Each structure stands twice: as structure tokens, then as C-alpha cells.
């Protein structure tokens, strides 16, 4: 296993004409692409996609999370964690928060708490038979940013790559 990615590893095939029988990697899932690149950002069919997003934040900043659309097939979520700080969600102070499609309102506000807080990490998750799942299969996020407003389109790890499983708009407002 490499970092957070629990992939079975890239498939290999024989490269034709290679004099020393070298193998060439064929990446078949986004998880394998992230694992092969040993990173949180890769190019997938000409577009930058992410396994983990990181935004600069400070104590007192607000994050407005607006659900744009979500797949009705599985519960989807965006998860949030702050380095050296906490998140106030629904009046409760927590080290990490999840905004789930089946339990959260369409618009939710998170508050960054911590004098040493510097970055907010964001990743997508989904539920399969009640099991909270992230970073496997074809999980990734596409991001369109306009200043402090970020539209995130998520592909959960189930089945083919589709960035239609969850779409969320994040707006970061400085304290």
C-alpha cells in the first residue's frame, strides 16, 4: 500500500519488441493513477483530478458548503480536516467533519477554529452497504475555481469514472 491508497496495484503487460522483456504499466483506475504518481493530483484524460484538495485557511474563516447535485444511488460526502486546528460544525467542535448528502442540509457552514490552523484538507467519500469509503477505485475530484469559490465534482470509487456522483460548491470567507 502506498500512502492512503489501497489499490491492488497497476496491471502490467509485456511491451512488444522489448529485448529484455521489460513490462509497461497500464493504469486502469484513478486509484492506480494516484498510487503510480505517488501524489494527490494526476492528469486523467487531459484534466487535472485530485484525491485530496488543500486550501489555505486561518482561524475564524468560514466554509460554506452548497450541494449542487448528488447521485441518488449511494450516499455521498465531502470530508474536511484542518491541520493544527478544529472545525465547528452544527455548534460542535471536531477535528474532522463530513457533510453527507443524506443527512446534511443543502447548505452547511463550517468554521475554522485554531490560532495555528493553516490548511483545510478536503476529500470525497461515499457509503457502500453502510461502510464509509474513500480513496479506492475511481475516486477523484475535479475542481473549477473562481477566487474563493470552488466547484468540486466528485467521482466515487464505484464503477466507471464519472464526475457526476457529487457536485458541491465551496466558498471560503476570511474572518
Query: How would a textbook summarize the main sheet?
Result: 7 strands, antiparallel
Uncertain runs are: 1-5, 8-25
> Tell me, what's the shape?
globular
Look at the helices and sheets and give the structural class.
mainly beta
- Strand-residue fraction? over 45%
Rg estimate, integer Å: 18 Å
How do the strands of the widest beta sheet line up side by side? Answer: 9-8-11-6-16-15-14
Total strand count, please?
16
- Please name the CATH topology of the domain at 53-173: Jelly Rolls
Distance between the termini: 39 Å
Query: Into which percent range does the helicity of residues fall?
Result: under 10%
Short description:
With 175 residues, the protein is mainly beta.
Give an overview in words.
- The protein has 175 residues and is mostly beta strands.
- It has a domain at 53-173: Jelly Rolls (Sandwich), CATH 2.60.120.
- 5% of the residues lie in helices and 51% in strands.
- It is built from one helix and 16 strands.
- It has one helix at residues 30-37; strands spanning 11-14, 23-26, 41-44, 47-50, 53-56, 62-70, 76-82, 86-89, 92-94, 96-100, 107-113, 119-128, 131-133, 140-146, 149-155, 166-173.
- The strands form four sheets. The protein has a seven-stranded antiparallel beta sheet with strand order 9-8-11-6-16-15-14, with no helix packed on it. Strands 5, 7, 10, 12 and 13 form a five-stranded antiparallel beta sheet that branches.
- Strand 1 (11-14) and strand 2 (23-26) form a beta hairpin.
- The termini are far apart.
